């Protein structure tokens, strides 16, 4: 079995790499936005740029390539290393057309998303831990959030569209 290395890329996603028998490296960067980058490069020091390849794939293209290559053999135990029951820590990278772009972070609880915390906002090379409600979010910022998977999905939906959709499990907040 091939040894796959997994590295979290804060604000970006996850990088999986492995070394081939002939000394090259193959990697996949799975971005939080859903697209993936397939990369291949020489493992030699001073290797030529001509031996480096990068290809951007959308979600459907990445799944198709995985099927063509015979699916994944990464063991599920890798994902279990970071698993804490009921808690998800995820990143949302703000695009220009997202609702939250140019807006104050605000209080998600006042919008019906209770039990979710914005842990930090990453801007460039610096992090703004525990940002206040009046922190202005800009395109390119990455919001690091923690909460249940359902609350994280609900928050990401709000950040994209400006709307919070109630699920059957949500209590009536009276507003």
TrEMBL record:
Residues annotated as domain RCK C-terminal: 76-161
Gene Ontology process terms (BP): potassium ion transport
Highest taxon above the source species: Bacteria
A molecular function (GO) term: monoatomic cation transmembrane transporter activity
Protein name, entry field: Potassium/proton antiporter regulatory subunit, CPA2 family
Source organism of this protein record: Salinibacterium xinjiangense
